[in-house]
Amino acid sequence: MTGPKGGRFQGSSRGADQGSRAQGSSAMTGPRGGRSRGCTPGPGSEGGSLIHTCPLLPPQNSSEMPETITSRDAARFPIVASCTLLGLYLFFKIFSQEYINLLLSMYFFVLGILALSHTISPMMNRFFPANFPNKQYQLLFTQGSGETKEEIVNYEFDTKDLVCLAMSSVVGVWYLLRKHWIANNLFGLAFSLNGVELLHLNNVSTGCILLGGLFIYDVFWVFGTNVMVTVAKSFEAPIKLVFPQDLLEKGLEADNFAMLGLGDIVIPGIFIALLLRFDISLKKNTHTYFYTSFVAYIFGLGLTIFIMHIFKHAQPALLYLVPACIGFPLLVALAKGEVTEMFSYEETSTPKEVPGASKEETTEADKKEK
Question: Family, per the entry (predicted)?
Answer without folding.
Answer: Belongs to the peptidase A22B family.
